[in-house]
Amino acid sequence: MRAVLLDGDSLGNDLSLNEFKHLPVELTIYPATQPHQVAQRIQDADIILVNKVVLSADTLRQVKQLKYVGVLATGMNNVDTAYCRQAGITVTNVDGYGTDAVVQHALMLLLNLATSFVPTHQQVQQGDWSRSPFFCLLDQPVMELAGKHLVIVGYGTLGKRFATLARALGMQVSVAARPGTEVKGRESLDALLPQADVISLHCQLSAETDKLINAERLAAMRPTALLINTARGGLIDEPALLAALKGGQIGGAGLDSLTVEPPPANHPLLNVKLPNLLITPHSAWTAKESRQRLVKMAAGQLETFLRDTA
Questions:
Q1: Is the peptide bond prior to 262 cis by the omega test (within 30 degrees of 0)?
Q2: Residues designated as active site
Q3: Which of the four CATH numbers 3.90.1210.10, 3.40.630.30, 3.40.50.300, 3.40.50.720 does domain 2-95+288-308 have?
Q4: Are 279 and 269 in contact (CB under 8 A)?
Q5: Residue 133 burial (CB count, 10 A)
Q6: Who contacts 38 (Cβ-Cβ below 8 Å, separation ≥6)?
Q7: What pLDDT sits at residue 75?
Q8: What is the rounded distance in angstroms from the CA atom of residue 129 to the CA atom of residue 135?
Q9: Cα dist. 276→250, 256, 270, 283, 291 in Å?
Q10: Which of 300, 159, 55 is nearest to 308 (CA)?
Q11: 308 CB-contact burial (10 Å; exposed 0-12 / middle 13-18 / buried 19+)
Q12: pLDDT at residue 221 above 80?
């Protein structure tokens, strides 16, 4: 069978792809694929491997012999899965490959915000400590996390692992029921927000969770509360967040995703210098161990498909 990987470089160029190369397929790897190149590159493919390149129904409809689409990620919003079901095309994704890396990243954002690490490090670099008449600097706020109340939104594998780390720090953990859902033993997000010292988002982006954290909910939060998002940027109303940070409505935010990625250079959150706003470039999943695990899992799924359809 003929297989194409449309955006190999999106996984990094430091990985081994031998798991795919050892399969009984004729594999062509493209470092990246622009929208206008997709149709030509997949026209003879029986198998498409893809990370973020968009595969619409109109595009897929032209590939009559296509049998399998392997998404090298958890999210599948770039593939028209409804069309694939209708056309009998198998679609797989990879889930759980980056749990440890993502929760480590979420914890890193939380610890950096709680300790005001970035502005404090900048003070040291610019000589404030050397010029201080005292043995330490006390200019930046520091939050002791032990005893603080963490509210988690999204209690799958990631949310549960993050809760474990938070409890190890002595935090009190609550799991919120998302708006529009009722789960026994869980209070609603709106009921928990005024009590939360930290809110961490680990849920999927959907019509129900789009702009889940909006101006109204930001206003309900404590002025010292910290917001962590290692899920999807669209969960947060970004203009409302910027206004809340500037107005002192919340204590800080750590984000690993924005609504549009890559973001435009003039994105408001990228062009404001706030000591309590940390943004990383959707990199929570990028530990080499996680990415190599993703490749291994995706190759295993394709191997199973090939064996089952032989």
A1: yes
A2: 232, 261, 282
A3: 3.40.50.720
A4: yes
A5: 4
A6: 6, 53, 54, 55, 59
A7: 85
A8: 8
A9: 9, 14, 13, 19, 30
A10: 300
A11: exposed
A12: yes
- Does residue 176 contact residue 186 with C-beta atoms inside 8 Å? yes
The answer for residues whose C-beta is within 8 angstroms of residue 94's C-beta and 6 or more apart is 71, 72, 73, 74, 294, 297, 298, 301
Residue 109 CA to residue 143 CA, distance in Å, equals 13
Its pTM stands at 0.90
Neighbours of 34 (CB within 10 A): 10
Q: What is the pLDDT of residue 55?
A: 98
Domain ranges of the chain: 2-95+288-308, 99-279
CA pair distance 188, 179, nearest whole angstrom: 7
Q: Contact at 8 Å (CB) between 231 and 202?
A: yes
Which two three-digit tokens encode residue 75? 């999210």
Fold of the domain built from segment(s) 99-279: Rossmann fold (3.40.50)
- pLDDT attached to residue 204: 87
* pLDDT tens profile 33-73: 999 999 999 999 999 999 999 999 999 999 999 999 999 99
Which residues, 6 or more positions from 250, have their beta carbon under 8 angstroms from its beta carbon? 218, 221, 222, 223, 224, 225, 226, 227, 244
pLDDT at position 178 over 80 = no
The letter for the amino acid at 94 is: V
